[in-house]
Amino acid sequence: MQSLKPILFVLIAALAVSPLLAGGTLAQKRAAFDPASFAIALRPVASGLERPVYVTAAPDDTTRLFAVEQPGRIRLIVDGEVLATPFLDIVPLVESSGSEQGLLSIAFSPDFADSGLFYVYYTARSGEGVGDNTIARYRVSADDSNRADPESGEILIAVPDSRRNHNGGLLLFGPDGYLYAGLGDGGGGGDPDGNGQNPATLLGSLLRIDPRPERGYAIPADNPFADSGEGAPEVWAWGLRNPWRYSFDRETGDLYIADVGQNAIEEIDFLAAETPGGTNFGWNVMEGTTCYREPSCDSTGLTLPVAEYSHDHGCSVTGGYVYRGALEPALDGVYLFGDYCSGLVWGLGRDASGSWVMSEPVETGLRISSFGEDADGELYLVANSGEIFRVAA
């Protein structure tokens, strides 16, 4: 790989973001990060998958990993073996002809062990090549815990789309027990429909809903537009271009969003756990910390990223996780993320003064489609070529 140019990054005083850094349990969890110490190795876990885009585990399930294949299947990995029979196969429902389309994630209900409920995000097949961004609920088979019931599907949300790209795609249950969903701005260069700065649409937003086992979902009472009518009640935050991958720190509850940039900047956004809903991350007024709409712009009221890098180092950020596992103590508290195009991986954290610092990148030579976290907090890297690796120090 060609020599790397200096990385563009942002340093922001952490005390301006989170008062908890001044003391207390969460401050201790947010330990100081020395970027010079960051180094990783990748341990092979599984191979032979078809266009994998995500890997995760069910709550408290330490024996299985669930790998999402873009064409519309979820595969089980047990002891490094990919089981022949998919956990779920909804290929006929999924539009996956575009590079950003397909079955994109799975999220298990916090009470999955009892309820058997889980949720998937996919672009629906419409016959025109562009389908709705769809969130659906399924249930595990009553007589086989390694199989889902394909007839149990219930669509909760279907957001009409007009383009193949910028579909977001990740579902996660937050520490508050609500289901979060990241949606892109609807595609096209520069957000031509103006969705990023329009909280009345679900596009370009991070949604937060309360799924109900009996049917449908409810709106959490503290969502910013739950009662106001000034925005869609499902919207928790907006001003996002394509939040392909985001994550919650399992120990602090802090939220990290990797938002894919336009032509110049890839960014990492951050919300401390105690932050209420209503954050505007700035797209398409801003691309990273740079004015996008014009040479100068007003960023008042916008929340800018805590880290960013230029397209000298990639073209599409792949968000990761804060490491909280037990096997790699050298990585504890470090947020790891990468770039799909360059295969570079970085570590991000705050130094002893509370400022954000980013490591030099580590080269992997892989197309990094996602990261994942298992029930024990160990981290995994997903390669679009079909492999899954465990991240080691």
Features:
393 residues, mainly beta, Neuraminidase, six-stranded mixed β-sheet, five-stranded antiparallel β-sheet, 2% helix
Written description of the protein model:
With 393 residues, this protein is mainly β. It has helices spanning 25-29, 112-115, and strands at 41-46, 52-56, 65-69, 73-78, 81-82, 88-89, 103-108, 117-123, 133-140, 148-159, 171-173, 179-182, 205-211, 217-218, 235-238, 245-248, 255-259, 265-271, 279-280, 286-287, 290-291, 307-310, 317-322, 335-339, 344-350, 356-358, 362-363, 368-373, 379-383, 388-392. The protein has one domain (39-337, 369-392): Neuraminidase. It contains two helices and 30 strands. Strands 11, 12, 13, 14, 15 and 19 form a six-stranded mixed sheet that branches. Strands 2, 3, 4, 5 and 6 form a five-stranded antiparallel sheet that branches. Strands 23, 24, 25, 26 and 27 form a five-stranded antiparallel sheet that branches.
